[in-house]
Amino acid sequence: MNIRFRQLPLALALALALALGALALGTSAAARADITIAIAGPMTGPVTQYGDMVKEGVNTLVEQVNAAGGVDGEQLRVVTLDDGCEPKQAPVVANRVVNDKIGFVVGHVCSGATIAAADIYDDEGVVMVSPSATSPALTDGKSYHTIFRTIGRDDQQGPAAAEFIIASVKPTKVAVLHDKQSYGQGIATAVRDDLKKAGIEIALFEGINAGDSDYSAIITKLRSAGVDFVYYGGYHPEMGLLLRQANEQGLKARFMGPEGVGNNDINAIAGKAADGMLVTLPADFTQDPKNAEIVKAFKDKGRDPGGAFQMTAYTAAQVLVDAMKGAKSKDPEEVAKYLHANTFDTPIGPVSFNEQGDLEKFEFDVFEWSSDGTKKSVK
User: Fold this and answer.
1) pLDDT single digits (tens) 155-195
2) Closest by Cα among 315, 288, 283, 310 to 299
3) Strands (E), the chain
4) pLDDT attached to residue 33
5) What secondary structure does DSSP assign to 87-145, as a single string?
6) Which fold has domain 155-276?
7) In this predicted structure, what is the pLDDT of residue 171?
8) In the chain, which stretches have pLDDT less than 70?
9) For residues 172, 176, 177 and 182, what is the CA-based torsion angle, rounded to 10 degrees?
10) Distant-in-sequence contacts of 68-74, Cβ < 8 A, 24+ apart
11) What residues does CATH 3.40.50.2300 cover in the chain?
């Protein structure tokens, strides 16, 4: 259609131009209609690997949903936002999500960052599902409506570690170290308390500085105290250095850590000293026959489904999609209500949330690590 506005009265020409412009914008918006899910986590920095795991899980689910027609005909779109695993950066990311009118977030990844962002999301009605933040402080004492997680808490993971140490390792003198951060100190405290209840001597409970390159001073303390077992609460860069430097200094103690140390990049830091490290991780959901097609979808894209957070991230995205479909709404408020009220069949098993957005149950297993990149369940 070719309308020559100069032949019309000015007012009518302007009205027609505005109407046609609005129609064009509406048509363009309809053509581009989609549902945005943000992934918030460390896309840069020393624990980028955990952000990569979450991206792999979310992207695999999104690709499957979009290939099947999307959600009520709308495609899912993923944006990634970098908080560097830093509590100071997480509110910046959260405010960007709000300003961009994104209603759904998978993340944040690190507990400290997740805690720092949660108030903003809940206040602004954004649904956040973390696949990896395990600190109880995220939800304890809070009355959140839109905050969830698809991983267990440290007060579930800590007892699982302590139970294994007591029953299978049977050490005589234990040191418990942590990185002075929400996640690391929280899980270390939980392990220490359970070991003390069992009568195991805690020779040392001390924090180290994340990011340091020399832990010889603390290793000297461990040797002097005569410890035969070390539990470390924190992430793999520091654990890798502790393992390597302990080996170099002749410390004959076995090390154990939470899922934050369960990353193959630790092998590049620790080398052979990583052999025999114990780690609590989510159960290996790739071994469940019902997940065969999902595992194949990961592998078809060259992705590893067997890391700490790929399946919990896939599940986080899945429950968001299932809740949109079940609620017949993309309104975050309605999606949150549906999440609270229903049970979901997922790769990590049946998922249901309690009033504060935590899982009703979650299984942590103990694995023995190998420097060749493999691990085996020992529980």
Assistant:
1) 999 999 999 999 999 999 999 999 999 999 999 999 999 99
2) 310
3) 34-41, 75-82, 104-107, 127-130, 147-149, 173-178, 201-207, 229-233, 254-257, 278-282, 344-346, 349-351, 364-369, 375-377
4) 60
5) TTTHHHHHHHHHHTT--EEEE--SHHHHHHHHHHHHHHT-EEEESS---GGGTTT---S
6) Rossmann fold (3.40.50)
7) 97
8) 1-33
9) 160
10) 70/34, 70/35, 71/35, 71/321, 71/324, 71/325, 71/330, 72/324, 72/325, 72/328, 74/33, 74/34, 74/35, 74/330
11) 33-151+286-363, 155-276
For residue 3, the model assigns a pLDDT of: 35
Structure tokens at 219: 């290793």
**Phi, psi dihedral angles at 258 (to 5 degrees):** -85, -170
What are 85's two structure tokens?
């695993």
Are 369 and 262 a contacting pair, CB within 8 Å?
yes
CATH of the structural domain 33-151+286-363, one choice from 3.40.50.2300, 3.40.50.920, 3.30.1490.190, 3.60.120.10: 3.40.50.2300
Residue 136, C-beta contacts closer than 8 angstroms, at least 6 positions apart: 153, 154, 155, 186
| Tokens of residue 42, six digits | 């460390």
Could you tell me which of 364, 366, 324, 322 has the C-alpha nearest to residue 343? 322
User: Cα(202)–Cα(317) distance, rounded to whole angstroms?
Assistant: 41
Give the number of residues written for the chain.
379
